[in-house]
TrEMBL record, chain B:
It is a multi-pass membrane protein. GO terms for cellular component: ATP-binding cassette (ABC) transporter complex. Part of the ABC transporter complex NodIJ involved in the export of the nodulation factors (Nod factors), the bacterial signal molecules that induce symbiosis and subsequent nodulation induction. Nod factors are LCO (lipo-chitin oligosaccharide), a modified beta-1,4-linked N-acetylglucosamine oligosaccharide. This subunit encodes the transporter. It comes from the Bacteria. This is Transport permease protein. The complex is composed of two ATP-binding proteins (NodI) and two transmembrane proteins (NodJ).
Length: 321, 258
């Protein structure tokens, strides 16, 4: 578990993980179309994208579980194509779907999993106890998996992924389906791991999660990287200024005559909402704020705005990617 | 893929130990099944039918039957483990997916499962030998040699089952295998009556099935004789094991590494 090592500088050029020209095709469908990215040691790197963007395929490829049609991945100087078991030995994986072993208790899940890494028995015992403590699961050590809530299962999956003291932790949508308390506990633990020097790669479609955790994020769509930078830099580059959302309480489209255009930098209509991007909303507020059936929400620009601007606002079918 | 990648490594033992750990938790119902079912067959057919049959191939019918039941029980147990249990681990529980996030490879998982099928077959085979010994239905100094033979038969039947599992989309698929492969073997491979009773074509066809060869080895060993043509019978079981391993590995890799 946590090794004592200061957080690395994400800007250093010696990459811990190097992905070059990743291409993957299923039948006629191109899932990855030439992905390039580096992850620095100790960095928290986010892969963002709508369903079907290629996030999960990328995560599988990093483990050497998806033969690529082109490209290469190197982890800690090892080529994934030729040394996948050795790569996985220094990697922890938190899958999208919990696949804890239902035939074992909480503690046994860790002990059995440690054997898959061929770790000495005493080491696995000690780490299991430490990890249960770290993820606040100690009181449930002897319980069956079926007794755990969704958040506890996810925490146990994270504990299990740390049993080999991995240098890099891959998390595929770590907080999907969890309540806010459970998410915050998990985020806190991930930040703590990052502080101790573990490199993190997480996929998510929760923008707030990416914004809170990630040093850098790559926004992925249709198997390509559309943008890659720190969340702040992406927001500054793609959505400068602030955001004002207008809605009408009767559900009719707000501002049908487009009078707002003279006061904003740009705007978009999403369903019943008019989203305005700009720097000074005073005239806009003055005009619409006085109208009785208008609802106004002024907020800072977020990664979600960047994401929606880059990937479009069309709804994606929720096919597993 | 490299040749070495196809050979299982020491990781197979971790997979085996995982299955053993689960089995130990359910020891009582599991052993009950191993003893109970064959015991009922032995009593019902051995005594009931045996009364009318009398001798078969120069031995009391219950003795003839006991050795056949040992062989068929190895087949059933190894097949069930390789079909339903392995499929549950692969699909419903996603145990293989969890294992593949560690240094384990598909070949390690397959070899661990295969060894476990054989061990379960061995447990059930030995259980029946113990029960049959109480009735005096097995005898002789060859009995210990039956143990490795039963293990090899378990590998062959487990391997075949794992090939089917690697192809299966749902549990329903296994009904084909049972109806088309397992049940015919149970009825036509010399478990209940000698192969000589079959018409010539049936006798030839039965030679193609692994249970025939398992019975041909196990029956003499449990009744105090050295099996004839033992090298041929061992060879057939080994061939089934190796072919099934190679085929199952290819199918599983295609299924799990996409």
């Amino acid at each position: 578990m946590p090794r004592k090592k200061g957080p690395a500088n994400p800007a250093m050029d010696l990459a811990f993980l190097k992905a070059r020209g990743l291409e993957k095709r299923y039948g006629t469908q191109m899932v990855l179309r030439g992905l390039d990215f580096d992850i620095a040691p100790g960095e928290c790197f986010g892969l963002l994208g709508p369903n079907g963007a290629g996030k999960s395929t990328t995560v599988r490829a990093i483990q050497g579980l998806t033969p690529l049609d082109a490209g290469s991945i190197e982890v800690d100087g090892l080529d994934v194509a030729t040394a996948a078991p050795a790569v996985r030995a220094r990697m922890g994986v938190v899958p999208q779907m919990d696949n804890l072993d239902p035939d074992f208790t909480v503690l046994e899940n860790l002990l059995v999993y440690g054997r898959y890494f061929r770790l000495p028995r005493a080491v696995v015992r000690q780490r299991s106890e430490d990890l249960l403590e770290f993820l606040a699961l100690t009181p449930w050590a002897r319980e069956p998996i079926s007794a755990l809530s969704g958040g506890m299962k996810r925490r146990l999956t994270i504990a299990r992924a740390l049993i080999n003291a991995p240098r890099i932790l891959l998390l595929d949508e770590p907080s999907t389906g969890l309540d806010p308390q459970a998410r915050h506990l998990i985020w806190q633990r991930l930040r703590s791991l990052r502080r101790d020097g573990t490199t993190l790669l997480l996929t998510t479609h929760y923008m707030d999660e990416a914004e809170r955790l990630c040093d850098r994020v790559a926004i992925l769509d249709h198997g390509r990287i559309l943008a890659l930078d720190s969340p702040q830099a992406l927001i500054a580059a793609h959505v400068p200024g602030a955001v004002l959302e207008l809605r009408r309480s009767d559900g009719r489209p707000p501002d049908p005559d487009n009078r707002h255009l003279q006061w904003v930098d740009s705007s978009e209509r999403v369903g019943d909402t008019l989203i305005c991007y700009g720097h000074d909303f005073a005239p806009l507020l003055q005009h619409f704020g006085t109208q009785p059936d208008y609802l106004l929400l002024q907020r800072p620009a977020s990664l979600e705005d960047v994401f929606l601007r880059l990937t479009g606002r069309d709804l994606r079918e929720a096919a597993g990617d | 893929m490299a040749y070495a990648e196809r050979l299982p490594g020491i990781g197979a033992i971790a997979v085996l130990r995982r299955n053993f750990g689960v089995w130990r938790k359910l020891l009582i119902p599991s052993l009950l099944g191993n003893f109970g079912d064959p015991l009922l067959y032995l009593l019902a057919l051995g005594y009931g039918l045996g009364h009318f049959v009398g001798q078969m191939e120069g031995m009391p019918y219950i003795t003839f039957l006991a050795s056949g039941i040992v062989a068929s029980s190895v087949m059933n147990t190894a097949s069930f483990e390789g079909l339903y249990s392995a499929f549950t681990r692969m699909s419903a529980q996603q145990t293989y997916a969890a294992m593949l996030a560690t240094p384990l490879r598909v070949s390690d998982i397959l070899a661990g499962e295969l060894l476990w099928c054989a061990i379960k077959g061995l447990i059930s085979g030995v259980a029946i030998i113990v029960v049959a010994a109480f009735f005096g239905a097995v005898q002789g100094w060859w009995i210990p040699l039956a143990v490795p033979v039963i293990f090899l038969a378990g590998l062959a039947f487990g391997g075949m089952a794992l090939v089917v599992t690697a192809l299966a989309r749902s549990y329903d698929f296994f009904m084909y295998y049972f109806t088309l492969v397992v049940t015919p073997m149970f009825l036509f491979c010399g478990v209940f009556y000698p192969l000589d009773e079959l018409p010539p074509l049936g006798r030839e066809l039965a030679q193609l099935l692994p249970l025939t060869h398992a019975v041909a080895l196990i029956r003499p060993l449990l009744t105090g004789h050295a099996p004839s043509h033992w090298l041929l019978h061992l060879g057939v079981l080994l061939l089934f094991t190796l072919t099934a391993y190679v085929l199952a590995l290819r199918l599983l890799e295609r299924r799990l590494l996409r």
